[in-house]
From TrEMBL:
Family to which this protein belongs: Belongs to the bacterial solute-binding protein 1 family.
Localization per Swiss-Prot or TrEMBL: Periplasm
Domain of life assignment: Bacteria
Lineage: Bacteria, Pseudomonadati, Pseudomonadota, Alphaproteobacteria, Hyphomicrobiales
Stated name of the protein: ABC transporter substrate-binding protein
UniProt keywords, alphabetically: Periplasm, Signal
Positions of transmembrane segments: none
Broad class of where this protein is predominantly found: periplasm
GO CC annotations, alphabetized: periplasmic space
Signal sequence extent: 1-17
Amino acid sequence: MKAVAATAFTFSTWASAQAVDLQFYFPVAVGGKAAETIQELTSDYMAQNPGVTIDAVYAGSYQDTVAKAITASRGGNPPQLSVILSVDMFTLIDEDLIVPFDDYLASDEDKAWLAGFYPAFMENSQTGGKTYGIPFQRSTPVLYWNKEAFAEAGLDPNVPPANWDEMVEFGKKLTKKDASGNVTQWGVRIPSSGFPYWLFQGLTTQNGVILANSEGNRTNFDDPKVVEALQYLVDLSQKHQVMAPGIIEWGATPKAFFEGQTAMMWTTTGNLTNVRDNAPFEFGVAMLPAKERRGAPTGGGNFYLFKGASDEQNQAAVDFVKWIAAPEQAAKWAMATGYVAPRADTWETDVMKAYAKDFPPALVARDQLEFAVAELSTYQNQRVTGIFNDALAAAITGQKTPEEALKEAQAQAEAVLVEYR
């Protein structure tokens, strides 16, 4: 921490002599206080560094943000800094739009700071021996459950399903119907819009299979274990009838949970504060249920440095990133949003220890990192994940069998990625 503080002081002294303007693209992908908190933090930094002006541009969803950053870069007006999905790293490299942080993190202190991030988050941040992304609003999917609904169904309200079989068993007890046979409460809700591949990757990881290699140039979409995982997801609706049929909306899922339309939901830990503030009942948070193993993908966004900036702008951007990742600011961000503080030093602060003691669910996603894998990420990532998402949708809506859908998706992804090998 002393090294970070010294860097900020030195930079502030230098910057006061010559103004530096930064444009910073920032997505808002979850409810709660994300936008408000990032504005407060940005303003605090500028107050401490009067030579730096940061224009925080709220660019919409993650998909909107990467599209705007690419468009602006192609038009000769890139942002200097942006938070973009960690999985878009290969795309940004392929488009030749970003520069690695390594040139600006050259000292021993800098390298020690870089080593302080959780390894699971760095899997989607480094490639080819270089660091292209700095973890910021990072997450894993977790299971939320309504303790009142569990008690009403005769289940222990403090014990979530530990495995796939129990999720079905509990789901059957939790699914409620009215006198006409219409479902008023589903057992579980796993969204299949927005980020369908991400939540589905929880199932594939638990089934012991990885969707893509670490080089980002080969996928395993038609692996029998992937097919088995997709069949399980489809069966939750069609066979076991514990989840609503068809595509389940990502954005509407927390509200459905609050309103008692589902007793369990899978969503990002980035919704943790949103749930804490808005659930009208006592709820629990747990790691995703296991099959062959525990497991979940990491998720969320990294900071990226864009080409076209001056050295002074890059130095200012890196200084801001180091400042906002420092324990005091990272703790404020984590408590306001529910995102996982990506460094262990943040969790060692008194304020985070007190927060975790008062609200133990905050520790679930952090502890799940032990079992986490890299989020699906390849070259031409949006195209490849689009192919995969379409396959998931085809199986979920009954247009194709899981095996048919995934076999076609693998062939299409292979056609895209073969040139990168």
